[in-house]
Amino acid sequence: MKLALITDIHANREAFEAVLDEVERHGADAHALLGDFVGYGADPAWVVDRVRALVAAGAIAVKGNHDKAVVDGPRDTMNSDAQRAIEWTRGQLDAAQIDFLAKLPYTVERHGCLFVHANAYAPEQWEYVTGRAEAVRSLNATHVRYTFAGHVHDPQLYNLSGLGKIADFTPTPGVAIPVAPHRQWFVLPGSAGQPRDGNPAACWALFDTVRSELTFHRVPYDHDEAARKISAAGLPARLGERLKEGS
Q: Where is the Calcineurin-like phosphoesterase domain (predicted)?
């Protein structure tokens, strides 16, 4: 099976469409959508409906913190731009779309893999995995070999040996990485809709379960149009500038 891993779309239609086109071109058999479908961007209704259609066709989807904030109201810990975007988004979605977000699970375990937005040890607390210590903690909280997560917008890969040694590295786009199941792996595909590593191209990854290979990908998209729509919607202009900068 070839499993497409997509996360942190953040209501960015242009990025999501570009990624889905690439996913199809690479022959993916299935999709795993790792949360934060809304927030920041100008097309929440379109993105939620596209996610709903993919889920209806068998895709895995889990809840992100921005999805929960749209359902419950923004958290005080969110920055002001994020809070404004959440409040705006709440007015753009109908009851069925909000209900879909509300019913998303925090975790899904399938195909011997764990799918979660933030981490395995406290998925509802939204703690970031930004280094080896957090990756070890997450991997120790589950028995599966592969954990796929979002929340952190930069692509990153961690592995834990049977002797408890952790390693991490930043992957090169388009280069297949052997991910043998005798280790545990914590995979961050990077954000499709708001990359933050200085590269504005959308992120996604492809997991080949037969070959035990993982390939990270970057996809250029029309970030100028996505930014224009953010400004036209009355959302903070800085959110559009971040798309152009990859920040």
A: 1-209
